[in-house]
């Protein structure tokens, strides 16, 4: 069943609940208002967990190569992250739509950074719509790997599109329509999927 919910996506998380958290392409853990905003779900998760704990959990996944591509396959041990000249830091940068898991959370990469340090969803060689399709592809793989329980999904990408003043024909309404269409097609008999908005 697909339901729309309002409120705090972090409220009353039990063992049978998985929460999708949009993160940047480096799985960063610094909530400084630049790299990660404290009001973003990424920032709230880090502040709730503590940055050291979040960092250790994510680093363990990276070291163990426990990162999945947008088709749900573990990335190979020799996987090449984005070239160093495209990196804004020493962190590895993974493609949009890749994901990993820590505890009850699915960390789904939905943004890159430009030279000004702003998060954006547009790939340099693609449109916002094509990039959003890559995000939904990763979301689909992540949800398909959950066998039962409730999956909480925020409206992914809409705040970034707004902040960046995207000029394309692809807008918030298109994103919400495509997200709902994607989730409706994923529902299994033993799953509940909830779309959360603040």
Automatic annotation (TrEMBL):
One Pfam family assigned to this protein is ThsA_Macro
Give all residue intervals belonging to the Thoeris protein ThsA Macro domain. 7-160
Q: What superkingdom heads the lineage?
A: Bacteria
> What is the protein's name according to its record?
DUF6430 domain-containing protein
This chain's source organism reads: Candidatus Haliotispira prima
